[in-house]
């Protein structure tokens, strides 16, 4: 399995690769994980990220001409579209199967490639809720500091809330853009409703999520954010930008969307959730509870078993 993310990383693709490797081992397969193709004879290749793993895919095909390749398309492959993100058609055509992480990911493929595409939603075991922080309505934001995550949108939104609002955004995420990191440090120092904690371990990040009343995801693009699966597993309702990667997980009629980049709309949803205006928070919580079966690890396990059976890898 080739993933550009470093081993034991807290970045999304790395977390996905670690979980998939575990599933494949549970299915009885020997799995070697690497950031680059190490060479050798293998029964199959699973590659995350079409653009960054393109050289690995070509090298694998040259050494293993009959072995199947499973290519998982990430958010930076899929959006805004495959051409503009630099995904080469040749690499897509080398894949025996293409995996996307939510239903709308299929829409980015042409009809011929869509026939080889399978949707595998990311799973998370149940996460026990933690005792909420006293005196605030805590909103978790688990997003690394880079432009596509729109990391300061929630901080801007809470500045628009009424003076008596108790909403506080706790932001966990590592630095991938130094200029945005400087802005986040300044915002954290001057905005009493926003705290950026920097990078934390995955366990620490999930503790923040498990004690929070909401998760906010403000991204401009996502392939299928693992943090949404984590929130569902923890019973934490989600407010998200209305992007295909979130709609493909939460559903078209989910009530907790705001237009990407729209600070005022996000602020309005946060206010509505805090007060449960017209039952808004109650509705979010109910909808997320009803989605829990989608993130059941048994479901993802079965999806991989089915895909491997299609490729005669049993």
Automatic annotation (TrEMBL):
A GO MF label: glycosyltransferase activity
Residue span, Glycosyl transferase family domain: 140-285
Domain of life: Bacteria
Coiled-coil ranges (or none): none
Database matches in InterPro entries: Glyco_trans_1, Glycosyltransferase_put
This protein's UniProt keywords: Transferase
Protein name, entry field: TIGR04348 family glycosyltransferase
């Amino acid at each position: 399995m080739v993933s550009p993310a470093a081993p034991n990383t807290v970045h999304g693709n790395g977390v996905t690769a670690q979980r998939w490797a575990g599933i494949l081992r549970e299915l009885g397969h020997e799995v070697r994980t690497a950031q680059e193709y190490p060479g050798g004879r293998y029964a199959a290749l699973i590659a995350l990220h079409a653009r960054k793993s393109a050289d690995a895919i070509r090298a694998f095909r040259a050494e293993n001409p009959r072995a199947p390749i499973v290519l998982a398309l990430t958010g930076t492959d899929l959006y805004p579209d495959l051409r503009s993100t630099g995904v080469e058609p040749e690499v897509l055509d080398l894949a025996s199967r293409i995996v996307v992480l939510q239903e709308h990911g299929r829409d980015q493929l042409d009809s011929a490639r869509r026939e080889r595409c399978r949707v595998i939603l990311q799973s998370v075991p149940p996460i026990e809720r933690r005792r909420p922080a006293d005196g605030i309505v805590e909103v978790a934001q688990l997003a690394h500091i880079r432009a596509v995550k729109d990391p300061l949108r929630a901080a801007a939104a809470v500045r628009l809330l009424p003076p008596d609002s108790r909403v506080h955004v706790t932001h966990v995420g590592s630095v991938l853009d130094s200029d945005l990191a400087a802005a986040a440090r300044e915002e954290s120092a001057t905005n009493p409703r926003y705290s950026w904690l920097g990078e934390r371990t995955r366990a620490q990040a999930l503790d923040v999520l498990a004690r929070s009343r909401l998760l906010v995801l403000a991204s401009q693009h996502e392939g299928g954010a693992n943090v949404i699966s984590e929130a569902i597993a923890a019973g934490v309702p989600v407010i998200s930008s209305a992007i295909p990667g979130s709609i493909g997980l939460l559903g078209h009629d989910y009530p907790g969307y705001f237009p990407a980049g729209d600070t005022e709309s996000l602020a309005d949803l946060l206010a509505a959730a805090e007060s449960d205006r017209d039952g808004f928070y109650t509705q979010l919580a109910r909808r997320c509870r009803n989605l829990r079966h989608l993130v059941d690890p048994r479901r993802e396990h079965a999806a991989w078993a089915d895909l491997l059976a299609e490729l005669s890898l049993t």
